[in-house]
Amino acid sequence: MGGIGIVIIELFQDTPTLEILETGMAWYYQLPLGITYGLITAWLGWQLIKLQLMNEVKNFYSSIIRELNLNWIDVIFISFCAGVGEELLFRGGIQYWLGMYITSIIFVAIHGYLNPKDWKISLYGIYLTIVMIGISYAFEKLGLISAMAAHFAIDVYLLGVISLKNINPDSSLQ
Q1: Cα–Cα nearest to 41, from 163, 132, 159
Q2: Model pTM greater than 0.85?
């Protein structure tokens, strides 16, 4: 996805990819701000998923992730690739044309969290859309590295909670 983002940026925008990466605050401010935002929103999202109301959603996604049998290296690698690649595409490439709100909705919908046939997953999708709007805002105000760091932190937290604690999807996941 990152490659597609770079192609979109290089071919259709006035600003080269490297310049987009350098825009905004210094990386050493963006990184901790993005990670903090990501960890807070991931924790809040996990609290939503743990609600009794969301058991079906939790069980469905937990079983998929647990089947992958991920270790810490896998979690870090997948999270890094998703954080960098997807943010290059969505924030760096697509947001330029569609703005933060439409880009955030498309991002969440593509991931399958906005489903008119399943209001519970859509409830989580609405939460994620708000989180993605926050990441879009961070990109515009702080820089792309903050968006990448937030996405990375969200994925590390959620993948880690599910796959590394050997959680039974039928448990309450306290």
Answers
A1: 132
A2: yes
